[in-house]
Amino acid sequence: MAPESDIEQALAEALRRGEPYVGPEEAPADWVGVRGAFLRALLLERVANPLPGAAILLARVRVTGGLDLSGLGRTEAPLPPFRLTECRVEDGLDLSDSAVARLDLRGCRIDRPNLRNLVCGFDLNLSLTIVEGELLLMNARIGGNLVLNGAYLDARPGDPNSDDPHARAATAPFRALSADGIDVRGDVFLRPVAGARSFIARGTVALPGASIRGDISMGGALLEGPCAAPDGEGRRHTLGPALVLDRAEIGGDLNAAAQGGRHLDTLGRISLAGTRIRGDAIFSGADLGHDQGVAVNGDGADIGQSLTFDSLPAEAGAGDPPGVTRCLVRGSIRLIDAKVGSQLSFRGTRLEALGEAILGGGARIEGGLFLVPFHEVPDGAAPVATEVRGALGFPNATLGFCRLQGCVLQPGLAREEPFAPIAVFEGATIRTALLVSLAPGSRGLFSLESAHVGNLPNLELTRWGEPPTTDSQGTWSGVRLELDELTYDRGDVALPEGAAGGRRDRSEDSRVVLAWLARQYVNGAPAPATFRPQPYEQAARLLRAKGDRYGAGRVGSTKRQMQRRCVDRGLAGLGNWLFHLFFDYGYSPARTLLWGLAFLALGLAGVEALKRTGGLVDAEPVLSFAIRPAPAADIAGGGAPLVGEPVRAEQPCTVDTLGYTLDAFLPLVDLGFDRRCVVAPPAQFAGARGATWALLLYSLIGLVFVPIAALTFAGVLRSD
Predict the structure, then answer these.
(1) Global pTM?
(2) Which among 358, 446, 435, 443 is positioned nearest to 404, based on CA atoms?
C-alpha cells in the first residue's frame, strides 16, 4: 500500500529500517493522521521480512480509521515487541487472537481496544493510557506483568469529552475492563504514577475466573461502578460492582493499601466471591463504598493469610483525624463460608451499614477477629477507636481468637428498634479466648447464644458496655447480652487495676459473675420470656471446678430465685420460696443449721411450757381407790354402807425436755421419749386440742426438714 502523506512515507522508511518513529512536536489536534490500514500493511511486511531483535516503536502518531491487527502472529512465532507512546488510535484497536512478544501502549489515547485471546510473551503495559469505551482482555495470556498504572478507563455512555454526571448517567451496568479468564504469569498493577494521576476506572473492572501468579496491587486507585444520575441530594447510586474478582486464583497478595498519600476509593461493590488468594488481602486505608448494599462480597473466598481493613499513618496534618489515613467501609462486608488463614483485622476502622456490618456466617478465621484502636497517631493524640454501625454477624463461624477492645458497636443505620443486634456469635466456636472491652457509646444486643468459647478472661476488667436500661419515655441505652446455651472452658476474674498483689476474697468472684449474668436483662430484672437457667448453671459449674464452692452456691441460689419469680406459680412458687428461706436451695448448710437450731429452740420452749402448765402428763396415770357412802337409793335398812371405786390421778411429765423435743422433731428416729408423756386430757388441760395439733405439726416439719437438711449438708442438692 502506497503512502499518502509525508508522515506515512517517513513512518514506512523507519519501520523498514527497524528504527523507532517519533512524530512532530505539534499539539495532538494538529497531527496528520496515519491510516490504520496502511500501518497494518507495514506490520504485515515486517512479519514477512522480520528484522531480528528490532522492535516496532512509534511515538506521537495519530492512527485513523482503526487499527486492525487481529489474528497476527502465533505463540511460537509472535509479532515483535510493539510499543506505542503518546499515540492516538481512533476508531478502535483490535489485537484479538494475536500473539506479540511484548505490548507497550504507554500514554496513549485509544478507542475501544479489543485484546481478546491475546498472547503476550512478556509485559502488557498501558500506563497513563486513556481508554474510551470497554477494554477487552478476555482469556488473554500474559507472560509477564499487566501494568495499568495511571491508566484512565472510561466506559460511560454519552460524550467522552463531558464530565457532567447527568449527561453520562447509566441506565444499565457496563464494564470498563473485561478480563474474564485472563492468565497473568506476573503481577497486576493498578496504581498511581508518581506526579501523575491514579488509576481510574469509570465502570466495572472485571477479572472473574482470572489466574494471576503474582500480586494484584491497586493502592490509590479510583474504581467507580456504573452510576445512575444523581438524586435531588446529589447522591449517586451504583447499578453495578466496581471490582469483580469472582473465582479468581491469585498466587500472591491482593494489595489495596494506601500508597503515597493516595488510598483506594471505590463506589460500588468489590466482589471476591469464591476467590482464592494465597497471600494477604489488604484494604488498609481504603475508602470502600456502597451505601445501599454490600461494599465487599467475599462469600466462599479462601484467603491464605490475613484480611485487613486497618487505618494507616498519614503525613502530618493529612487525613481524618490528622495524621491518620482511616479505613472507611460504607456498606456490608460479606464473608459467608469464607476462610481466612490468619487475622481478620480492623484497627481504627469505621464501618457504616444499614443492617449488618459484617456477615460471616459459617466463616473460618484461623487467626482471629480483631477490632482494636489504631495507636500509630501523632504525639499527644488519642488512639483512633474502631467504630461500627451495624451488626458483627458470625453465626456458626469458627474463630481462633476474638478481641473487641476499645471499639464502639452500634446498630445499623436502618435499625431503630431497642437493643438491635450489634454482635451475633450464635453457634460460633472461639477456640482460644473472647476478650471484650467496649468503648463508651456502645449499645445494642450482644448475642453469644449456643456459642462455645475457650476462655472468657478477666470478666471484671472486661468492659461489656453500660448495663441495658430503658425508661418510661422509651429511651434505651447499654448493651444487653444473650447467653443462653453459651459454654466456655474457662472464665477468669482478675484483680482490679491498681490493686495490691495477692488474691482477694473469692466472694468477689461470684459477685462479678452475677453482675455479668444480669446483663441479660433490661434494667436488671428478668422476665418469663427472657429468663434462661443455663447461663447460671454454666457459671456455677465453672466456679465449682475452680474450687469456689461458695461462689457456685451463690450463683445457683440466684438462679433458683429468678426461676421462682419468673416461672413458678401457686403452690410451686410457695414451695420454692420455702426452699429458699430454709435451705437457700440446698446451697447454704449454715442457713440450714441456723433454722434447725431455731426449730429445736422453738420445740424446747413449747415442750417446757406444756410441762409447766400441766399440758404434758405421764402416759401411765396413777390409779387409787376412793371410799365413799353408797347412794341413798341403794340403802336398805338403817345403816349407810361404804363403797370403794378406782380414781385416775394424772401425774406431771418428768421426761427430759430435750429428749422429748428431739423425739418429736425426728419422727423417723424412735428415741422412746414421746411414748412416756402425752398431752393431758381436755378435762384437765383447756389447751389440749391445740397442743396436740402443735405437736403433730412440729413432727411434720421435722419429717420434711431433717431429710432435706441432711441432703444439704451432704451437698447432694448442689446439682448445677
Answers:
(1) 0.84
(2) 435
